[in-house]
Fold 4-hydroxy-3-methylbut-2-en-1-yl diphosphate synthase (flavodoxin).
Amino acid sequence: MNTQILRRPTHQVQIDHVNVGSDSPVIVQSMTNTDTADAQATALQVKELSEAGSEMVRITVNNPESAAKVAEIRQRLDDMGCNTPLIGDFHFNGERLLAEFPDCAKALSKYRINPGNVGKGSKGDEKFAFLIRTAAEYGKAVRIGVNWGSLDQSLAKRMMDANLASANPKTPEEIMKEALIVSALESAQKAVDLGLPENKIILSCKVSAVQDLIQVYRELAARCSYSLHLGLTEAGMGSKGIVASTAALSVLLQEGIGDTIRISLTPEPGASRTKEVVVAQEILQTMGLRSFTPMVTACPGCGRTTSTVFQELARDIQQYLRDQMAVWRLQYPGVENLNVAVMGCVVNGPGESKLADIGISLPGTGETPIAPVYVDGERKVTLKGDNMAAEFLAIVREYVEVNYGEGGKKRDYRRVIPIQTA
């Protein structure tokens, strides 16, 4: 029986064809690490991230050279048939870049503004106002993104001074967390006062520690109805970044908090940027919130499975399914819900294989060298010999064509947790 996750009610934000908010699925976002001034490289990486499943992509707009290329990047993407919305990441000089390059302002679908580094005092207020008015003029959404490492120091000092004068002062750590929330909420109210509708605003308060992130977002969620973007800032590299992001975001998502997510992984040297997209999808899919690609269930291996055959097959099947999704997503609606099991011995193999849509139970060490294949719970065929992997892949392809093709019984079937708002 599915457990329904109650989404926190929010304003619904339209960003081109992407809907963000509690009435829509949680959206996966990512960011390029190319030099935006290199229009070709940036457009190609955006397309790569989009094909991996990123539904919005953020690009750095930090100097005139990059701002001058944003419209070209948008055009290149359109020419390649990639309609993924582009988010402009502005720091320090965003108002000047938008003023000098109106084509950049128009080509972007959303602006990301950090109130901690727009500027200080009245000058900072003027710069913030220009950014917001530009967004309102062109009908663009804005993410007001507060970061622990670049918090508005004047606000922090004001709150620290007030805390010292309090009869029951809080710890400096508590005040800093509160300052993050206040910065986001005060900036959002300024934006509304300047003419940007509430349904054009997304908020984020990013920190790098799991427990701090959970605490800050719980409080932020309780105090507003804005859509929220989740993510640990500087999550880290490899398993550390994946584990930390999963630990933090899963808790919040389970509580119905979060409308877009990004996994800020530091890529291994030379590695694809798409890893962060895959991790974001897998968090949402394993929680039952969305389905992106067929899932492969595989046993971890033990002394019964000294052969690496099942490991290799599980790896190859998983990669094959993900690679096919760019085409299958269009040809076979609902195929993302397919569940495949690749098991290594007779202990749990037959049982897990029967529970999957398609499952294969490979022989363990010393077992009869045959592999029964189960389809929809029924034993269909028994494979043996050196060609088992290719034969099993053929069975998977046939299953997809028959069940998710035109007239297929599982076409467009959605096995996900229903969206409900509290």
Remarks:
- The chain has two domains: 13-287, 295-404.
- Residues 295-404 form a domain with the Sulfite Reductase Hemoprotein; domain 1 fold (CATH 3.30.413.10).
- Residues 86 and 108 are 5 Å apart (CA to CA).
- The first strand starts at residue 6 and ends at 7.
